[in-house]
Amino acid sequence: MDFCVAQTNSDLDANQRMKSMITNIRYSSMTQVFHWLTVLLVGAAWLLSEGGREPRVYAAERASSLTLHETFGVLVLLVLVLRVAWRMFDHVPEEPPASKLVHWVLYAMLAAVPLRRLSVPI
To answer: Where are the domains of the chain?
Structure first.
């Protein structure tokens, strides 16, 4: 009986070590949700963008799609703020310095576009 208990405890320790190893090499579920939400919002904003010169983009007949596009931009900014705040408190797996730099450059680029638009009066 004691042998079975020792075996079970050993198995539990091995399972805990395995879970710890997996946690150290993967981003958390919430981080992944923020990632895919950002992808969806950026994709939606891009699909709704008209592009082109200012008179075309800001034409009256395009006002509804422009408003929706800008709404998605603000949502991207909001999710980005939440994502960065989450990253400050969540466990981040080991990553090379170049990867860490690329993450922060991408965050800056995601923030730059909506912030630039919010700072320019219509």
So the answer is: 27-119
Whole-number Å distance between alpha carbons of 113 and 107: 11
Closest by CA to 111, choosing from 85, 86, 74, is 74
Inter-residue long-range contacts of 32-35, CB under 8 Å, 24+ positions, other chains counted: 34/79, 34/82, 34/83, 34/86, 35/83
pLDDT in tens, 33-53: 999 999 999 998 888 877 766
What pTM was estimated for this model as a whole? 0.70
**What's the CA dihedral at 13, 18, 20, 24 to 10 degrees?**
160
pLDDT digits (tens, 9 = 90+) for 7-25: 555 655 655 555 555 556 7
